[in-house]
Amino acid sequence: STQKTTPQGFQTNEYADAQLQEIVRKMRERATVYKEKLKDPVLSSPEGSPTASPSKKKPPPPPKDEKKEEKKEEAEAKPEEDHYCDMLCCKFKKPPLKKYMTYLQLPDSIDSYTDRRYVAWLMLVTVAYNWNCWFIPLRFVFPYQTPSNTIYWVAIDIICDICYLCDLLVFQPRVQFLKGGDIISDKVEMKKFYHSSMKFRLDVISVLPFEVLYIFFGFNPAFRANRMLKHNTFFEFNDRLEAILDKAYIYRVIRTTGYLLFILHINACLYYWASDYEGLGSTRWVYDGQGNMYLRCYYWAVRTLITIGGLPEPQTLFEIVFQLLNFFLGVFVFSSLIGQMRDVIGAATAGQNYYRSCMDNTVSYMNTYSIPKVVQNRVRTWYEYTWDSQGMLDESELLEQMPTKMQLAIAIDVNFAIVNKVDLFKASTFTEECSNDGCDTQMIYDMLLRLKSIVYLPGDFVCKKGEIGREMYIIKQGEVQVLGGPDGTKVLVTLRAGAVFGEISLLAAGGGNRRTANVVAHGFANLFILDKKTLNEILVHYPDSEKLLMKKAKVLLKEKGKPAPGPPVQQPRGLAGLFGQKQETPKLFKAMLGGKGKAGLAKLLQLKRERDIQENEAETEKPEQEEKKPEPEKKPEQEKKPPEPAASSAPPAQKEEPNADAKPKPPAVMHRGTTNESLIISMSPSPTAGEGEILKVEAKEKKRK
């Protein structure tokens, strides 16, 4: 440690000096905290709870073999992460191959509702199913399969059959199922459930190898007709895909259109088969064998099912019966598909139709009661912005249909980050002082479910100056401006998304505090509102959190009320740091002195002399002649009396009434000069508790030597 010699000759140790100052500072802070605790018993103890001491036992060192294996794994992982690209001339990180293999590894059990890999596999099986549904009738009716291209058709058929077999043996036995509300993921139970289902029977029939009959009857695609029985996988894929798509109605429209095209495809195949049965070009009704056979037949199928008309009249009985069945089937199928298409489009636009209906009803109501056009335009603007920004008029209506747990999960993902920014509800405020029951987090969760979203138009007043604050506002989207100044139009500050204002009003006692400025929406603003009544209903169940919130609110209120910090004050060094700074002179004493230094003392002595002169003149004017006492004996008694506060403004009241003929008193003249009197000023505690201290001023003559 270093020592230094002061000018007075004392030696001080800098380290000891710093330690003493630190001790004094901590003692003052602790005394301040305990004073606040005595005033407000709600505040908790400033001393934090002791933390658990770590165990002294050191963990045993890992064996050498394990260390070597870890080093090898790290060495292998490092070159896999960093790769140098010659083309780009830079390094980039590439995930190791093990992660890809782990992701692609087939799990022991598959959740059909959440596993995207299972949906991808169903899509592959659906492609194979559609291949069989579209091309088996085509190859059976139209002469597109020839000996020269049979090998290509057979190769694609084998690939589709492999997909069917993998789905039957590998994927479907691993799919989880529900039993009594429980999710069963046991391998044996999953296999038993799948083997006992109708889907398993149809899957087995769909893979039976009827192609062995090719040996006896040739390559006839009709022997593969059993492949079209795997329709359960196709519908399952549709359900899973709609569940994960953001706009499922688009896929529904495409699927419905596909149904229509497939029915027309089957009808075209039937028309070519009927024409071949009657003989190509034998009559005007059948296909004449010219042009593209599939397109000509498909065109005829479209005109027949849609009942456009203008077709050649059937000639034979077979043609008439076939045409009648086509008309009946066309009316039924076409009307069903059109109705299904209408339902799909109607479901997709149900929200927009509800929005239009609400807006039309509101406009009709305003027109009925002759609402001004300015107000009507603002209402229309609110409807349009609300619909464009969030796609619905009221988010709470959608969430009310869900269970409370799901509502909470959605509210946490959407609003928790915003609420956690509020100083009054920060999680750090609670984790340090709250108990281990997690009341703070649960209280915030309950509060998230009570937040209300309100949209303000440009120029709308969120709150006005002088209003009683009973709400807290959180800006979700947009901006608001705080206005002030003499005319209330000066922009003091602009608050943006994530900002919070009015949080102190939630816990203000005595009817709330008044707003000190106007807050106006600058553009469209979407705000969350939490009122005082809702917060009180929540805090009833969390008394510990209520105490902490009250403490935090008081601290924030003090911080907002503090003046701007001035220049830093240099603290005295040495032993002088043990004593506090000199307290300010009491205001009463300043008022009595009327000035500073000797000027104030001189004025006080002048007032004392004027009072003595006035008392002497009053004694000489008494009507009764009394024996006068010597002045030196009376003066000390009068000087011992403390002066009254009114002595500086008016003379003291006299004991007897003055003569009516008495002449007016001359004004007091201030005499300048020296005096042999001394002034004694002292402060003594009041005998009555709570009345502070008493100031005494005495004037005595100096003793002559």
UniProtKB/TrEMBL annotation:
<keyword id="KW-0472">Membrane</keyword>
<keyword id="KW-1071">Ligand-gated ion channel</keyword>
<feature type="transmembrane region" description="Helical">
    <location>
        <begin position="118"/>
        <end position="138"/>
    </location>
</feature>
<dbReference type="GO" id="GO:0017071">
    <property type="term" value="C:intracellular cyclic nucleotide activated cation channel complex"/>
</dbReference>
<dbReference type="InterPro" id="IPR005821">
    <property type="entry name" value="Ion_trans_dom"/>
</dbReference>
<keyword id="KW-0813">Transport</keyword>
<keyword id="KW-0547">Nucleotide-binding</keyword>
<dbReference type="InterPro" id="IPR018488">
    <property type="entry name" value="cNMP-bd_CS"/>
</dbReference>
<dbReference type="GO" id="GO:0001750">
    <property type="term" value="C:photoreceptor outer segment"/>
</dbReference>
<feature type="region of interest" description="Disordered">
    <location>
        <begin position="35"/>
        <end position="76"/>
    </location>
</feature>
<dbReference type="Pfam" id="PF00027">
    <property type="entry name" value="cNMP_binding"/>
</dbReference>
<dbReference type="InterPro" id="IPR050866">
    <property type="entry name" value="CNG_cation_channel"/>
</dbReference>
<feature type="transmembrane region" description="Helical">
    <location>
        <begin position="200"/>
        <end position="219"/>
    </location>
</feature>
<protein>
    <submittedName>
        <fullName>CNGB3 protein</fullName>
    </submittedName>
</protein>
<dbReference type="GO" id="GO:0044877">
    <property type="term" value="F:protein-containing complex binding"/>
</dbReference>
<dbReference type="GO" id="GO:0005222">
    <property type="term" value="F:intracellularly cAMP-activated cation channel activity"/>
</dbReference>
<keyword id="KW-0407">Ion channel</keyword>
<dbReference type="GO" id="GO:0005223">
    <property type="term" value="F:intracellularly cGMP-activated cation channel activity"/>
</dbReference>
<feature type="transmembrane region" description="Helical">
    <location>
        <begin position="317"/>
        <end position="338"/>
    </location>
</feature>
<dbReference type="InterPro" id="IPR014710">
    <property type="entry name" value="RmlC-like_jellyroll"/>
</dbReference>
<dbReference type="InterPro" id="IPR000595">
    <property type="entry name" value="cNMP-bd_dom"/>
</dbReference>
<feature type="compositionally biased region" description="Basic and acidic residues">
    <location>
        <begin position="613"/>
        <end position="643"/>
    </location>
</feature>
<keyword id="KW-0716">Sensory transduction</keyword>
<dbReference type="InterPro" id="IPR018490">
    <property type="entry name" value="cNMP-bd_dom_sf"/>
</dbReference>
<feature type="transmembrane region" description="Helical">
    <location>
        <begin position="249"/>
        <end position="273"/>
    </location>
</feature>
<keyword id="KW-0844">Vision</keyword>
<dbReference type="GO" id="GO:0005886">
    <property type="term" value="C:plasma membrane"/>
</dbReference>
<feature type="compositionally biased region" description="Polar residues">
    <location>
        <begin position="673"/>
        <end position="687"/>
    </location>
</feature>
<dbReference type="Pfam" id="PF00520">
    <property type="entry name" value="Ion_trans"/>
</dbReference>
<keyword id="KW-1133">Transmembrane helix</keyword>
<keyword id="KW-0142">cGMP-binding</keyword>
<dbReference type="GO" id="GO:0030553">
    <property type="term" value="F:cGMP binding"/>
</dbReference>
<keyword id="KW-0140">cGMP</keyword>
<dbReference type="GO" id="GO:0007601">
    <property type="term" value="P:visual perception"/>
</dbReference>
<feature type="domain" description="Cyclic nucleotide-binding">
    <location>
        <begin position="440"/>
        <end position="539"/>
    </location>
</feature>
<keyword id="KW-0812">Transmembrane</keyword>
<keyword id="KW-0406">Ion transport</keyword>
<feature type="region of interest" description="Disordered">
    <location>
        <begin position="613"/>
        <end position="705"/>
    </location>
</feature>
<feature type="compositionally biased region" description="Basic and acidic residues">
    <location>
        <begin position="63"/>
        <end position="76"/>
    </location>
</feature>
<feature type="compositionally biased region" description="Basic and acidic residues">
    <location>
        <begin position="654"/>
        <end position="664"/>
    </location>
</feature>
<feature type="compositionally biased region" description="Basic and acidic residues">
    <location>
        <begin position="693"/>
        <end position="705"/>
    </location>
</feature>
